[in-house]
Amino acid sequence: MAKQEYTKYQQKIIGRYYENLDTIMLQKLQELVTELYLAGSEKEKAKLWERAHKAMVQLEIPPEVINKIIQSHKVETLASHVEEWLRKK
After folding, report:
1. Which end of the chain is more exposed for a tag (fewer CB within 10 A), N or C?
2. Is residue 69 part of a domain?
């Protein structure tokens, strides 16, 4: 596959995306907290917890913290951690 060339404008957009990736992931986690509160079925909740896990891994949260949050399956725990991470930002 040939290497794709990007215009200066496209390069700036891509660069800004990666510069703000942590902010994007934190926003995604905030949205997941809301979705988890509103989720009806256990199947839906399981999918949302998996998405939250992936977002936390991408944010490079320590594995022991991720495991603690995921194993508790308490939305309040996730929400309090997200709030703490936002304050640190």
Report:
1. N
2. yes
Average pLDDT over every residue of 35-53: 94
CA distances to 19, 41, 87 from 71, rounded to whole Å, are 31, 18, 24
Question: Which is it for the CA torsion 32, 28, 80, 64, positive or negative?
Answer: positive
Handedness of CA 68, 55, 33, 45 (dihedral sign): negative
Domain residues for the domain of 57 are 8-88
Residue-wise pLDDT for 6-38, tens only, equals 999 999 999 999 998 889 999 999 999 999 999
10, containing H or E segment? helix 8-19
Query: What domain count does the chain have?
Result: 1
